[in-house]
Amino acid sequence: MVAPTVAATGFRTTDWILLAVVVVLLAASAGLALAETSLTRMSRVKALSLEDDRRRGARQLMRLVEHPEAFLNTVLLLVLVCQLVAATLVGIVADRWLGALGVVVAAVFEVIVIFVLAEALPKNWAVHNPERAALRSAPVVDALVRFPPIRLVASGLIALANLLVGPRNKMTTVSESELLAMADVALEDKVIETEERALIHSIIEFGDTIVREVMRPRPDMVTIDADATVSDSLPSSTVSSELTSPVFGSV
User: Fold this and answer.
1) pLDDT in tens, 4-60
2) Distance CA 126, CA 242 (A)
3) Is 236 exposed, middle or buried (0-12, 13-18, 19+ CB in 10 A)?
4) Domain ranges (residues) in the chain
5) How far is C-alpha 7 from the chain's CA centre?
């Protein structure tokens, strides 16, 4: 039995519709991949500065960055749905056109196209343009996260995952090394000056300073009696130089 070919079956209207849907899904997947990379790389400090500058989309960006768990799982779910549905539709169309061979061709085509156009390209652009990518994608992601059907499905799947992995520890801490690294990065990005970086480092390192490191040993101390006068406290050379100065005159 000979597998049907394109010439034998012809292009169906449904095939073109399915291909159009595939293009839309791949575009959506690329946009979501760009959003995932840019939003996860955005810090709260940077988002706050963009909001202070009244940049378009900064308000939604700040809301997302404050609660990354609210958008990350939703974005990952939508990316997975877009890519799986697109791959399935391409396989259906390829099977109609080329039969069993079409499935193999479709699989290779999907891997290349999805990786290049829907993963590598948008994520690399987001890495090199983090602010622009985050500001452009934040309003869209914020609307998707707030959309009730998507939020309901994502919440249900997240609850199922939590049951499998157990309770989560919500306490998050930032180590001193991370704070020091942030100061170094801020200096490289010309957000702070060299003196400000040195001040941040000294403040953080001061907490690890032991008292004996800044104390003078007793044998090295020069002490005076509590009832001693100023003249008695000054060295003799200093007193004599003051007495012979033009102000006091010579004795």
Assistant:
1) 444 444 567 887 888 899 899 999 999 999 988 888 888 777 788 887 878 888 888
2) 71
3) exposed
4) 6-165, 176-214
5) 51
